[in-house]
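Workshop exercise sheet. Pairs work together: one partner reads the sequence aloud, the other fills in the structure field after running the prediction. Swap roles for the next sheet.
Pair: D.N. / O.F.
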Amino acid sequence: MRKFNVLVLALAMAGACTAASAAEGSGVYVRGEVGNSTLYVDGDSAVDTAMNGWLGYSFNSLIGVEAHYGSLGKDSGDGASVEMNATGLGLRLKHEFAGGYYIAGRAGMERIESEFTDAGFGIQVRDEDQNPYAGLGMGFNVNKSFAVTGYWDTREVPFFGDTQRVDTLTIGGEFRF
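Structure field:
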């Protein structure tokens, strides 16, 4: 929790310092993403649909801050299920090329909640933890207000007292205001 609070404070201070110097490419944006998450556990993997919502502010065409909430997926079978959700805050770096294309990297801290339910045994176990996430993406600026995006993110999630890796591959749309 302490790492997350330090990151929030640092991002707030950076925002206060640079908000007054609005530049080309600055402003608020909203991005919705849908795709697949893959949970890797002891050599096995499970894949499910992931959905994320992002709210961000670009200080200029290069750097911005983002907050997100999303479902990393749900896997179920034989009366048992595992569901994971993430809430986070981080930075995004973006480099635009001629023709409207760009590449981006994002990283930050997030709180991940994992819930295991077994209806047959009446068991419900919840676990949560703060962990870093990182991602790479690319996009195409359709116009000044809208872009089509694709991202790959990786993170560690709490899973029965241990941590496991989840990779998420999404496509989305970004609306800029």
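Discussion prompt: The first strand starts at residue 27 and ends at 41. What would you look at next?
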